[in-house]
Amino acid sequence: MDGQTIMLLIFVFIIAAFLGVELISKVPSQLHTPLMSGTNAISGITIVGAIAACAINVDNHVFGMILGGIAILFATINVIGGYFVTDRMLAMFKKKEDKKK
Fold it and tell me: What's the predicted TM-score (pTM) here?
């Protein structure tokens, strides 16, 4: 990769990080849990993209494989954590059974 491409990728990363922080800071605290459960699909797409990036690694660069593995790991942790939070959130709305039985 040449210097211009790397600078463009760094610029896109910085803009995405800034926009992400700005958008999340504007969300009320009551909506964070439903928002997190809704983003599980996005993390699932990230897993598929990271697997595809590792599979397409044409020149067998070790650095690319390591970054792809880290992306797969973090996206998987995000998906699993999101499902646990969603399950816990939905459990709050279930009716409690009578404990006298």
Answer: 0.59
